[in-house]
């Protein structure tokens, strides 16, 4: 054999050996078609398009056998056997499709939260099938997770398998946080034939947390859980485009997460504020109610304005500490729009560093009488007696109670100390009542006035009667003959009297005089009475 032939033969053997190893390690985990499963177990996906044939080997055959037997056990609703077979298959080759099958097993066992977690990570892996109806069914199961379930980000030995309460849930690093029910859980890592297990560690109710798993000695697993804070983001970025606003939100969220703070999704914020007033996020008592319902710790308030040429961006950022009811940090900066994301990240990091590093103490405020409204640095914190965590440093305190004088004080709080204030509220001085009015007696009708009234009334009454009588007499002559001597033998009268006008006038005038006179005579006399004296304004001396 020539040297060239020997070299070629050697290279060929190496290539064949490499192909054999590749076939063992990377063979298709799902080469065999998945048998149908009953609808009671959970949704199934349509088979995906055929994949190119790959080399077969003992590992691939074993994997396919485990999957096939697991699916048969799943169809027969033998969930314990199916779980064991799928977990063995996952340890051979961790694929998203096996997460789906493990989720179906958990679903059949009534473990809805575990199933939702496995479905969620399957969907996030992006290798879903073509059955849109089944995918939508999985998403509904994920979205139906109750609010008490916590999201736990797990970090640990890369490539190791993670088991929670004895159930295999994936391999590290996970593509998204675990969904865990509140309560104690036991964690185990498996890698290269070695396992480490932790003592029970309690997951809080509905909180975001970070779980750090470290292998210890003698098979022990050190589990450290960090509870992430929740924050509400209020962003006013009217001067930015929608894409820029979204990038700013992502930048703030990334920095907040690095500070163990999770921004609440807008839909959860809307659900919290559903029965609250529109001014809730600016009211400390209202934020206290939100914190009791959801453990909100911070409110991040950003105002972004773009102006000038070249375009400049001014950001005002404030971090409101819900526990103290005060602003823990406030910053402002102006920079070029090209540096928007980097500058937002830098400003947010400074904001958290100032706020979290701000020392704290406590306030204990009492008043007599109690139930006085307490305002600290312009924020209403509650009513006396009040005991609350606060930021260290000087604070302007105001107590207000109805019908009492406001109480103002400057209270200095030292780090880790309790600053006490006991205030004696003074009632407001009652206004001095006005002096009683000076009464002046007005005299009644005098005798002289009464005599004159009777005289004029009597004259008027008699005159009216007389004039009315003359009018009646005149009317009685109306139409009579005035010829003298009177015509004889039916001769016509040349002068006839017409006294209607004068007679009627005299009667009307007479009646008026008679009525007026009667009123003057019989009108009641004016009696003496008392009236308040009008104060006289002093006139300036010229």
Can you characterise this structure?
Helices cover 37% and strands 27% of the residues. It has 542 residues and is an alpha+beta fold. Among the domains are: 22-35 and 55-145, Alpha Horseshoe (Serine Threonine Protein Phosphatase 5, Tetratricopeptide repeat), CATH 1.25.40; 146-227, Sandwich (Immunoglobulin-like); 230-356, Rossmann fold (3-Layer(aba) Sandwich); 360-424, Carboxypeptidase-like, regulatory domain (Immunoglobulin-like, Sandwich), CATH 2.60.40.1120. The protein has a 5-stranded mixed β-sheet with strand order 12-11-13-14-15, with helices on both faces. A 4-stranded mixed β-sheet has the order 4-1-9-10. Strands 3-2-6-7 form a 4-stranded antiparallel β-sheet, with helices on one face. α2 packs antiparallel against α3, α5 crosses α6 and α7 (242-258) runs parallel beside α10 (340-356). It is elongated and about 170 Å long. Mean pLDDT is 83; it is low at 1-53.
């Amino acid at each position: 054999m020539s040297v060239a032939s020997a070299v070629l033969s050697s290279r060929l053997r190496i290539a064949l050996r490499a192909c054999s190893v590749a076939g063992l390690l990377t063979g298709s985990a799902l080469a065999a078609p998945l048998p149908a499963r009953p609808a009671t177990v959970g949704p199934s996906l349509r088979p995906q398009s055929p994949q190119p044939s790959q080399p077969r080997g003992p590992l691939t055959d074993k994997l396919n056998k485990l999957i096939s037997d697991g699916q048969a056990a799943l169809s027969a609703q033998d969930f314990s056997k199916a779980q064991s077979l799928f977990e063995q298959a996952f340890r051979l080759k961790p694929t998203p499709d096996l997460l789906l099958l493990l989720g179906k097993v958990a679903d059949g066992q009534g473990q809805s939260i575990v199933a939702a977690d496995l479905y969620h990570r399957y969907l996030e892996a992006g290798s879903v099938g073509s059955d849109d109806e089944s995918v939508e069914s999985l998403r509904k199961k994920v979205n139906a997770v109750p609010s008490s379930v916590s999201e736990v980000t797990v970090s640990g030995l890369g490539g190791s398998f993670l088991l929670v309460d004895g159930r295999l849930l994936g391999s590290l690093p996970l593509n998204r946080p675990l969904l865990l029910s509140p309560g104690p859980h036991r964690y185990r890592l498996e890698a290269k034939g070695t396992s480490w297990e932790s003592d029970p560690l309690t997951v809080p109710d509905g909180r975001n947390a970070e779980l750090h798993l470290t292998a210890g000695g003698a098979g022990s697993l050190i589990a450290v859980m960090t509870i992430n804070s929740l924050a509400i983001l209020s962003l006013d970025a009217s001067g930015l485009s929608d894409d820029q606003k979204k990038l700013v939100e992502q930048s703030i969220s990334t920095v907040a997460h690095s500070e163990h703070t999770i921004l609440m999704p807008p839909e959860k914020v809307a659900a919290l504020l559903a029965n609250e007033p529109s001014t809730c996020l600016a009211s400390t008592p209202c934020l206290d109610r939100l914190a009791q319902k959801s453990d909100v710790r911070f409110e991040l308030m950003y105002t972004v304005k773009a102006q000038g040429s070249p375009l400049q961006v001014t950001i005002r950022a404030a971090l409101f500490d819900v526990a103290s009811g005060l602003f823990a940090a406030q910053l402002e900066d102006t920079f070029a729009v090209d540096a928007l994301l980097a500058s937002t990240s830098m400003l947010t990091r400074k904001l958290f560093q100032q706020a979290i590093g701000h020392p704290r103490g406590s306030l204990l405020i009492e008043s007599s009488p109690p139930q006085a409204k307490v305002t600290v640095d312009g924020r209403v914190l509650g009513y006396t007696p009040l005991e609350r965590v606060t930021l260290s440093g000087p604070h302007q305190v105001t107590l207000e109670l109805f019908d009492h004088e406001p109480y103002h004080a400057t209270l200095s709080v030292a780090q880790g100390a309790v600053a006490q204030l006991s205030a004696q509220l003074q009632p407001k001085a009652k206004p001095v009542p006005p002096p009683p009015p000076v009464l002046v007696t007005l005299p009644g009708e005098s005798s002289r006035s009464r005599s004159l009234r009777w005289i004029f009334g009597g004259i008027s009454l008699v005159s009216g009667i007389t004039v009315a009588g003359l009018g009646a007499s005149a009317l009685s002559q109306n139409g009579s003959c005035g010829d003298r001597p009177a015509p004889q033998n039916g001769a016509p009268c040349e002068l006839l009297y017409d006294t209607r006008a004068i007679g009627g006038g005299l009667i009307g005038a007479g009646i008026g005089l008679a009525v007026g006179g009667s009123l003057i005579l019989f009108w009641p006399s004016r009696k003496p009475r008392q009236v308040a004296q009008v104060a006289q304004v002093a006139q300036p001396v010229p």
